[in-house]
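hey can u check if this looks right to u? its 102 residues, i copy pasted from the old doc so theres a chance i mangled smth
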Amino acid sequence: MATRSRSKPNSKQGPVHELRLGRIRAAIWENETQNGVLHNVTVSRLYKDGDEWKDSSSFGRDDLPLVGKVLDRAHTWIFANNGGTSNGNGNGQHADGEDTPF
C-alpha cells in the first residue's frame, strides 16, 4: 500500500501537511495562538459516489488500523516540525509545569 505525504506552505486556506494511507487521509492544520503555534488534525475516508470523489468522517472496522497508522504519522510529523507544546519530556506537562487537562 502506498503512503502519500505532502507539505504545503503555511496558508489560512488549507492544511500545512497531508498524509494518506489508501482511502484514509489526515490533514494537519496550523493555528497561531498567543501561546505559540498549535496543530489540529482532521481525518477522513475517501470514497467514490458515481464519478465524484467524496469524503466522510465515518470509518468501518477495516478502516481503523489505517486510521491509527495515519494518526501516528501525523503525530510524528507535528513533533518533527516543532509542534510539541509540552516541555518535550513526554509526561503531559507544559513548560510552565501545569498538567495537561483531559
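The helical segments are 64-80.
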